[in-house]
Known about the structure:
By secondary structure, the protein is of the alpha+beta class. The protein has 5 domains: about 120 residues, no CATH class; about 100 residues, no CATH class; about 130 residues, Alpha-Beta Plaits (2-Layer Sandwich), CATH 3.30.70; about 110 residues, no CATH class; about 170 residues, Nucleotidyltransferase, domain 5, CATH 3.30.420.10. Helix content is about 30%, strand content about 20%. A hairpin with a 5-residue loop joins strand 8 and strand 9. It starts with a strand and ends with a strand. This is Pol protein. Pfam families: RVT_2.
Amino acid sequence: MCSWIVIIIDIYPQRVYYDAFDDPVEDDESQLPYGEELHEAKLEDVNDRYLEALDNYINSEVIMPDKDGTAVLTKVKGRKRDAAGNPVGEANENPILDTRVYELEFPDGRIEEYAVNMIAENLFEQADEDGWDSGIIEEFLDIRKDDSVAVPKEQGTYFNSAGVERNVVTTKGWEVQVKWRDKSTSWISLKDAKEGDPLGLAELAVALKVQDEPAFKWWTNHALRQRARMISRLKSNVIRKGKTKFGIQVPGTWKEAVKIDEANNNTLWQDAINKEMVNAKCAFKLLARGDRPPPGYNEILCHLVFDVKLDMTRKARYVAGGHLTNVPANMTYSSVVSRDTVRIGFLVAALNDLDILAGDIQNAFLSAPTEEKIFFYAGDEWGADKDRVVVVVRALYGLKSSALQFRNHLAATLGNKLGFKSCLADPDLWYKACIDSDGNEYYSYILVYVDDLLIIDKNPKRFMEQIQGDFTVKKESISPPDRYLGADIRKVEDDGAKPFWTMSSNSYLDKAIKNLKAKLKESGLEYNKKLSDPNYSPKQPFTTASYRPELDTSEECTDDQVTLFQNLIGILRWAVELGRIDIGYEVSVLSRYLVSPRTGHLLQAIHVFKFLDIHKDNELAFRPNLPNLSLNHEEINEQTTYMKKAYPDAVEDLPPNAPVPRGKPLSMYVFVDSDHAGDKVTRRSQTGILLYLNSAPIIWYSKRQATVESSTFGSEFVALRVASELIISMRYKLRMMGVPIEGPTHVFCDNEAVYKNSSIAHSTLKKKHNSICFHRVRECVAAGIQVVHKVDTADNLSDILTKSLPAHIRKNLRSLIMYIRN
């Protein structure tokens, strides 16, 4: 009998709880160790078999990748044991410290060994947000109907109050046969199948000629229109004829490049091709004419791609057809440094008086060898060598494994030659213990985003010179950073205080706004058109502060408008990442309609650009000084002391493998808020979180909650629980970076009841369904991870991330969060 696993996993690095039950539980919550009793379930009421599964995963079934990358259903047979019969590894409630190894049985009978965290990760992937096993659909096989329940065709429409004929919205009486990823099949309700893959189900309905049935008619046409849009976008990416950029015609092939140069009476594209072919030459081994490819090598295709850079220079890149290769998944994934780590880097540099030097590795992938055995036949761009066999010997752009091969090659230089260590909290942050001329201890850091480097040190040039010994770093790129990942970077030294770094999206948005104006002009639309609404204001992102996207009933967008809307939201999302915290809420709520936006949503997205066009001079400042906050230290000590008595076992999990702290310490401050039942349709609340290190904003979070809370108290506590997870993760990252942390994190919320329940030990919870959030937050207080403070709503900076505020309130909060450039 298949075991069902209920998994509740907090943000890493947190506790993982597993509760096992033999059969699916329906409408009987008494079987579940729910709420505040979750991690203190009465194990004496659970029989030995349940206890064994709870502790050891034994007999659990989990989908795992097979040798060829396909997903198969495996069974946990037991703990791996050493020669003396003792179990390998030790259990720990903290996943960081859990070292257990289990043996998994695959369908072909072989036994493989996996670490417990790998098993937990895969269990989590196949579970829904409540922890129940959520099968992953591979394909739909058949559809059947129960005539006694299903709505007949003659009753499939009705007339609304306006006399308009509408389709009945129903899925009753219909079931779909599903083939799951584990190769099993079953019949599920049409309602559930439609939520899993509406497009695939619509295509099956058409194939079986049931699309006109009432259960399908009301939604299949819409799903198929979405398919048509995707195909249209795909075609537009493939057909390159007439493609221009910055008004310059861009070729699609070598022959087109030659024709364009001949028509323009220049050799700009051919010069770019020649430059690229010279740079890429090291990646190839050209065999003698008539030689056959080496045995065991696979043939691929290679081609040129073209682009125009911001300075109008032509760019050519020789790339491989990586889609023609079959590479294992473990050879394709390559990480990059996270954006919050980059912000921490700028802050730590200012805090410890370190300099920053940026550099861009030229033809980065080509510096690394490749493990793929591939060849191709030289094309027109090879001139006299056309049709000769070319063996690829380096990580050519376009190959699936190139990014990882380059990363491993760079890691070998940073680790073996320069003596840096990869941070376990962010593997693309490298650190090294150093001592300056005055005897002060600190850490040097190197941040890697593919081929972009940021070196943070007292003398970063010494490390850059060592890197240049193994890689070609573009000379013009070696300087203090002024641009990084699309953001404008500058160092402020004339503020009368300690120098600090700032980040802004000004240049990125200037270009985006210019392109948007040109696009609207082509479509015959006005960018600066004012609306007749008396509440209209250009001083806020939405046209009015009362606008609610979920209540928008305007017409659905055309295919071209959908594409434009998706492009605009993509730009706005990146602008938020680059520091435009003030539009975080608006971008979050508009992003819910990417699949099927209305013209009203498109209008609001365009208006957000108008708002950004007006309010340009905003930056994020990574100031190292402490904020000017009045804190009651006696109250802080009381919170931790008395809460510790209520939760005597609560401790902060400190990673045993963290480097010794060096440099000046950082303090953490977090503002938390929620807009209770802010979504007028689903009545879900919006969470807003703003996390500071000293006076530098590092993380901002605006997201709709996954549950519907019946009170402001509940929604605020959910937000506070999410903030607690972010705090624990950030404290872990800082420790693994070797950055000292001073005291607990100070959390500010504006709800009196939440403040008292999370800071006063003898307060009791009245709403049991909020017990997980309640106890999680209070345990963090007891462990000294955080303390909670009450703040007035007008001073709660995270309020800007939960709702669309009136212009005067928004202006005040923006001035407190963002740095106005002089």
